[in-house]
Amino acid sequence: INKIGILTSGGDSPGMNAAIRAVVRTALYYDLDVIGIRRGYEGAINGEFIEMDRKSVANIIQRGGTILKTARSQAFQTPEGRKKAYDQIKAQGIDALVVVGGDGTFTGAKVFGEEFDIPIIGLPGTIDNDLYGTDFTIGYDTAINTAVDAVDKIRDTAESHDRVFIIEVMGRDCGLIALRSGIGVGAEAILIPETKTDVPHLLHRMEVGRKDKSSKIIMVAEGGEGAFKLGEIIKERFPHYDTRVSVLGHIQRGGKPTCMDRVLASRLGVAAVEGLLEGRRDVMAGLIHGKVEFTPLDHAIKHNKEVNESLLKIVEILSL
Ligand code: F6P
Fold first, then answer.
1. Per the annotation, does 92 bind a ligand?
2. So where does substrate get bound (predicted)?
3. Dihedral class, residue 267 (left if φ above 0, else alpha if ψ from -120 to 50, else beta)
4. Probe ligand 1: pick from 128, 169, 248, 301, max atoms within 8 Å of CB?
5. Are 273 and 25 in contact (CB under 8 A)?
6. Strand order in 242-247's β-sheet?
7. Beta bridge partners of 189
8. Annotated binding residue at 155?
9. Are 123 and 284 in contact (CB under 8 A)?
10. Atom 3 (ligand 1) nearest CA
């Protein structure tokens, strides 16, 4: 391998810049050239390449977003689009790829790696933490801290007004942002798609639960019932509560990465380049029990991550 291409794709996540920096600097350390591909697979198709050197990644470890920009490419889902991307990449002399992203990014990488002879290593860059083969994805820690910070603020006003707040957080089909940030804010209930913490159960617990608490925070993962629908149900069942709904939205995707995310991105960025040099391909670099491990891309995307039972028990004991 002489020249590595790096891209970020799909929804951005805090720490992607730290990952780009780590990949570029590790490649240079091993005397490899690095090309940045802008706007993910879309940029590969359209020939958006830039040479990367030590300086091009200076002062980015602390920045949210991605300096390479990102996109969700429709064209890359077609064989013609992928062929175009391959031709462009080959014309640049790129002979290996590091792709930073989530589910969609790895799905694309897997097909691309099967169709063309190019080694690819994925780095888990998504706030959702929904990839198998890594305890945490790059951006998750920042996102849950952002959510905790926002909900702490909501708690102040909820408490002042004796209100019930239903707060929706991101995560696509995965409830892990809701679960951890919900525990972190002392939520009275947490609804996630992975468990049977369903609406009747919640209503029952509200019915029999403490009446003396002035505010209630109900954390809801976006992949479930939907915060507004739940708000209507609660308003109807408990008309004496003053109920409000708040959707945190894209605030969870931005901001300075936490130290945890910067270190994770740095470790995995180094591992990706070293993995390519060791001959690995079509795998994702992740961290399992504190150790770097490589997982085939199709395992990373196909297996549902298990929800930690002990966290669910904690919710049951400490909420309502
Ligand atoms: O995958 C990251 C994520 O933020 C999900 O949590 C969310 O469902 C989705 O992306 C939102 O995507 P978009 O920014 O395209 O609306």
1. no
2. 126-128, 163, 170-172, 222, 244, 250-253
3. alpha
4. 128
5. no
6. 189-191, 216-221, 163-169, 242-247
7. 218
8. yes
9. yes
10. 11
The question of whether 128 is a catalytic residue gets the answer yes
Residue type, 83: K
CA-to-CA distance for 91 and 109, rounded, in angstroms?
Answer: 19
Q: Are 284 and 121 in contact (CB under 8 A)?
A: yes
Q: Which atom of ligand 1 is nearest to the CA of 223?
A: 8
HSE, CB side, 13 Å, CA atoms: give it for residue 52: 31
pTM exceeding the 0.95 threshold for the entire prediction: yes
Tell me which of 12, 128, 261, 282 is the catalytic residue.
Answer: 128
pLDDT tens-place string over residues 148-204: 999 999 999 999 999 999 999 999 999 999 999 999 999 999 999 988 557 888 888
Distance CA 238, CA 236 (A): 6
Centre of ligand 1 from the C-alpha of residue 127, in Å: 9
Question: What is the pLDDT, as a whole number, of residue 205?
Answer: 83
Question: Is residue 194 a contact partner of residue 180, using CB atoms and an 8 Å limit?
Answer: no
What is the ipTM for the molecules in this complex?
A: 0.98
Angle at CA 85, nearest 5°, toward 84 and 87? 65
Residue in 201, 200, 207, 198 with CA at minimum distance from that of residue 240: 207
The binding-site residues of ligand 1, defined as CB within 6 angstroms of any ligand atom, are 11, 102, 126-128, 170-172, 222, 253
The Cα–Cα gap between 272 and 283 comes to: 9
In one-letter notation, the amino acid at residue 244 is R
Block residue for tokens 């990449």? 89
For the CA atoms of 197, 199, 205, 206, the dihedral, rounded to the nearest 10 degrees, stands at: 140
Please classify residue 278 by burial: count the beta carbons closer than 10 Å to its beta carbon, then call 0-12 exposed, 13-18 middle and 19+ buried.
exposed
Q: Which amino acid is at 247?
A: V
- In DSSP terms, which residues pair with 125 in a beta bridge? 138
